[in-house]
TrEMBL record, chain A:
This is Energy-coupling factor transporter transmembrane protein EcfT. Transmembrane (T) component of an energy-coupling factor (ECF) ABC-transporter complex. Unlike classic ABC transporters this ECF transporter provides the energy necessary to transport a number of different substrates. The chain crosses the membrane at residues 26-53, 65-87, 107-129, 247-263. It comes from Natronobacillus azotifigens. The gene is ecfT. PANTHER family: PROTEIN ABCI12, CHLOROPLASTIC. Pfam families: CbiQ. Belongs to the energy-coupling factor EcfT family.
TrEMBL record, chain B:
Keywords: Cell membrane, Membrane, Transmembrane, Transmembrane helix, Transport. It comes from Natronobacillus azotifigens. GO terms for molecular function: biotin transmembrane transporter activity. GO terms for cellular component: plasma membrane. It is found in: Cell membrane. Belongs to the BioY family. This is Biotin transporter. Signal peptide: none annotated. It is a multi-pass membrane protein. It holds the Pfam family BioY.
Amino acid sequence: MSNSIIIGQYVPGDSWIHRLDPRIKIVIIFCFVVFVFFANTALSYGWLTLFAIATAASTKIKARFIAKGLTPVWFLIIFTFVLHLIVTREGTVLFEVFTFPIYSGALIQGFSISLRFFLLILVTSLLTLTTTPIEITDAIESLLHPLKKIKFPVHELALMMSISLRFIPTLMQETEKISKAQASRGVDFKTGPLKDRIQAVVPLLVPLFVSAFKRAEDLAMAMEARGYRGGEGRSKLRELVIRKQDIIALGLFAFVIVVLFLLRS
Amino acid sequence: MGKISALQLSYGAIFVCLMAIGANIVIWFPFLAIPIGGVSVPLSLQTFFAILAGLMLGKKLGLLSMTAYLLTGLAGVPVFAQMQAGLFVLFDYTGGFLLSFLVVAYVTGWLSERLIPFTLSKGFFIATVGVLVNYLIGVHYMFIAMNTWLGLTISYSTTWISMTPFFIKDIFVALIAAVLMCKIVNRIPKQIRLNTH
């Protein structure tokens, strides 16, 4: 489990979506999230669905992986749909389910809201499916760069994220060790009143803190020994460059949005 | 904001990891799924660590650390509860709780910088304020999310009532944060706090 954590949901691949500049991907997805709410006709919804599915297909990621990323939200999508069927009472009665009337307005509204939700989730998950967390971190640092003017520590934020990527698996293993160590001492927390169980958290957390803080101090020492002096004048291992394909992607997306506005009423 | 030292940076990063572990603590300690009113509520220590981040790191570094946590999760690393990740968590009706950790860390940090020296009763006060901020933002976000983009009409009071079991649990857990903080307050290196005297 620990090894898969730092790559997150990333599925390696070599599609043109994978190779796009992560900044461009983030910008496009943020715009998409906003523009989804502008769709209000069947045609405009259809156009956005076409865009989302075409993009998903061009990542060449197996549908199985994409569906796996959607698992936690299927419930929400279906729940929204069903709730609309029950609550909304507009339009004509289409048919009855166990003497419960289903209205045409409910069907349309439930479907469009579920579809909008599905589109949002599909497109945003494409970002994390085709981009490694490290790339996204670099992109965030670059996109937030203007905030440096108001003294927001952008570089430090990005570095903090990179460091935590490195340490999340380590500390998770540590937690696993602590839980096994406690179990081997025969500690039983499974029974007993609520108060005892909550209090039992403290002896579990103390070793976790000790190891976490020790790691933080070792790391700080190592950084200082190597002459870390903040972001000023620091060079980068990975440089982000905007290439021709990124401009083309932006152009295509602009076209999608223009058509969307033509299709809405 | 003053210059951030390597030590402050690593402490901030460690709190991102602790938040990730706290969100999924039931994976390692299954007994922490607590039955409240017939439903098994998995205990999450996110609020606990967010409050602790404020208490230990102070308002600025605490806020920075929570921002890093949120962005790490949005970048696709499964650091949120139930090993979730990705941008969609913000559309979900529980997204407000994640956003509120930024404010929780800032507010608890701000209070702890003013209420020195640290005592248990002050710790209880700060922790309770932390949980209140967490729920004020989280529940309002939930209410707005349900009634706008999720398109579910739900009354204001129902939103609060549905969150009550979690609220009780989090108050308990926050008080433990205060107790724990009391035990370790003198062992934290003084240099990790930014701009405090």
